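## Example record

The block below lists the input lines for one assembly entry, exactly as stored, with component labels intact.
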Amino acid sequence: MSAVPTPTPPLGPRGLLGGSGSRLPDLVFRGGTGVFAWVVVAILGLLLILLVLNSRQVFGQFGLSFVTGTDWDPVAGMYGALPFIIGTVASSLIAILLAAPIGILTAVFLAELASRRVAVPLTFAIELLAAIPSVVYGLWGVFVLGPVLKATVEAWLVGTLGWLPIFAGPPFGIGLFAAGVILTLMILPTVISISRDVISSVPNHQREAMLALGATRWEMITRAVLPFARSGIVGALILGLGRALGETMAVTMVIGNSQKIPQSIFDPSQTIASQIATTFNEAGVGLQTSALIALGLILLVITMTLNVIARLLVWRVAGPVTEAA
Amino acid sequence: MTAIAGPPQSIAARLTGSTVGRRRTIVDRVMRGLALAAAIICVIPLGAVLAFVIGNGISALNIDLLTKPPKALGLGGGALNAILGSLQMVPLAALLAVPIGVLGAVYVAEFGNRRSARIIRFSADVLVGVPSIIIGIFVFTFLVLPFKQFNAFAGSVALAVIMVPVIMRTTEESLHIVPNSLREASLALGVPVWRTVFSVVIRTGLSGILTGTMLAFARAMGETAPLLFTALGSRLINVGNFAKPMDALPVFIYVNARQPNELLNQQAWGAAFLLLAIVLIINVAVRARSWGRQIG
Amino acid sequence: MNILSKRAVGLALAAILAGCSSGGASPTAQGTPGTTPAGSAGPSTPVPPTGDVTLQGAGATFPALLYQVWIEKFSEAYPNVAINYQAIGSGGGIKGITQQTVDFGASDAAMKDTEIAALPAGTKILHIPTALGAVVVIYNIKGKDGNAIKGLKLDAANIAGIFLGTITTWSDPTIAANNPDIAANLPDTAILTVHRADSSGTTNAFTSYLDAVSPDWHTSVGAGKEVKWPVGNGAPGNDGVSGSVKQTDGAVGYVELQYAVVSGLGSAQVKNAAGKFVAGSSAGVTSAANSVLASFPADFRQAPIINAAGDDAYPIASYTYILAYVDQTDATQGQTLVAFLYWALTDGQKEEKAIGYAPLPDSIDQKAIEELHQITTGGSPIWP
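Predicted structure tokens for the full assembly:
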């Protein structure tokens, strides 16, 4: 027979176990775990403080023209972040433009059209795509994808659309476009898995109503399911975009590492992350290091903002979602 | 013009051109085909990457690659420095990250009030999205510069910082799933809170916690950028000395991929094979059970 | 024995050893490399301490292949010594030694006045030259007949035009003019230039050349470890540039000679100041270095040797340096460093020709060995 325990408060804001802490071991336990939890907040806070403090030197010297400047010239002491911002945005944009149709269609396939026996292994395979380390993608990109793209897709694009400056050749394989393609592969799993969750959470009565009205399967999807899930899918795309912006290794290995603003998608370029990766270890103490850290701060601000927006959009449709990968 | 139709019409009825027009049928079939094609397109690159890594990697696998450090001019030698480095730095990172992640999640799930839970959860979510290279810069400033020494401990800390928020969020989810009746029963029996958490709650959610931890571990094995500024890399074998630089499989791959020496490129493929094997085995092992349940 | 005569003995021994090992001036260059540790030469030769020591160095990729060989051989002679050299570029070597995150740095570009001023207050740095190398122009061109082009000759205007982006295809007439025998085989392939993405002494040497020979380059780009390249892809390290050129048809880049050898890529013969087309070689840079010996600076900060006089001189030659503090905070590591540097300046010089570097001219070698006497720990010289 159980003894009468210390009265536990009803399920209140502190949860079932919170609040029953009049015994010392439990107080210590709660305090201890609390410390660990707040460590995460402390890490984030320290990170932000560090980035801001170390960026002050370069912002102090250049002000906002650091963000709009196009010259990155350590020898002359000139620092302008625009080429890297453009490289980051352009490569990620290519990735989203390719990943959106493929990803959404695949998510629709997995959530609506495929049978269990097909959907599960396919999902398995796509989640494995997410597990491949970035540097392995980079290795494969340099030796396999680059030459293949050069010989097929890029050659065809330059051949047919090369009169447009944005598609002007000559294509060398390595460059902005190759980086965009690799990023597509890396963000597809994110886009697909969240879109699939979002689509699955659309209530069935929407589907049934549409079908009852005589719609084909496809019409049901495009007119009942997708509009309902729209903000969640946009959220998935934005999360994928956030991922793409921060990718480092694979991009560094295939983007061509050029500090000029690319004119064509086949030109070499450089993202913020790849610029930091290639030059941080030798950056001159002082202004150059400050400039690189400021680049990091810009990247962090962009990705943080996108992440917050994306999660809000996804939560509206599907409830709180955590990705483990 | 919408008629309240009965059950959805059969394909045959549609194909004979009844109330659903030919055009709509064609659109329906084409788009569904495209969706299938998209799914296949997603899987092709996976196959391509696996094929090349396995193909090139296996031919590069020899005793030397696994047992020797790099040699000058790439004449022989192997990746032992990198293999040992990864096998030391990542487990140390896990040792640091698991207590913080799991116990921190316990706090948020069991004790946190609404506001503190929200702040901690938000911080963890933001930290998950921070590019790993920025974490490398962060740890460089605190653990390399003041000591004027690139060191493997800083590398482990950087990896731990990447792992902690992932472990924390997945652990929290697992703890939420544990039904409250279990907690109530335990408390009703007079078990102290801390004991309840360990013996009842965590034990029940253990498989979810393990899953999150293993996935975070696999991710840390594959991280390169944060190690570039912390552990730096080393051509020497380093066992146990975390105060000095250490190599790692991803760093080894990165350096050897760009060499003009084909022997070294081969070693990069070999190391990529090892890395991919470790990462994929962990991922498959961890997810296979839940997939099995889903199909069955 | 007072210090002066000790030094005299040391110098004499060093001169004898240098004369035997450098092989540049003296024709009888025998002496088996690496079998007899330097310690056998006499009591005043620096040797590493007993007990396990690890040295950490970082810097230029230009001499990295040479240093890898040296480190292996030195560790064979002294198994208790482990040296980890990370090739991250000359800029990285300078930064590492400035921030004292490494025990020694390496750079082909001598530290500038501003960089020296950025060193911690009260410290003094030594530039110890270790080798000479050639910066060669490597190319990967598939000819019209389907075979790789070999034996390309380029003059200063060609090279400047290629890297400025004004010459865009390999079939350009100005290139053909210098290559009458292979002109018909030069394809229309677009030229992809590859330069260094990181801060590089090799870039410093190469852009010094372009700066000297091309007024356009001088006004629009200039010389330095990092410059604003008008066109082309970047790649990290000498290894990255050669790897990148190897992977793309039509690519051209600039690297230290040994990287051309290792990658199997052709390196162009460059027209020197005497109007002759010279291939990068150990003899070519030795000839170039010898022609400017008289003006070698006292603080060892020699600029890249561009367009040296002489029929055999290769126009783009550079010394490469190890950077070490005069005052070593750790006695064990300081002693090991001095021993390693002494070995490099004596036995090590014999290794260089075999792998595409050139040994130091005798007089420079002797001066460098003398420099080692300046290194102190706790106030007293390690090698008096």
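Residues 1-42 of chain C have pLDDT under 50 and may be disordered. Chain C touches chain A at residues 88-95, 98-99, 115, 118, 190, 192, 197-199, 222, 224-236, 244, 247-248, 250-251 (CB under 8 Å).
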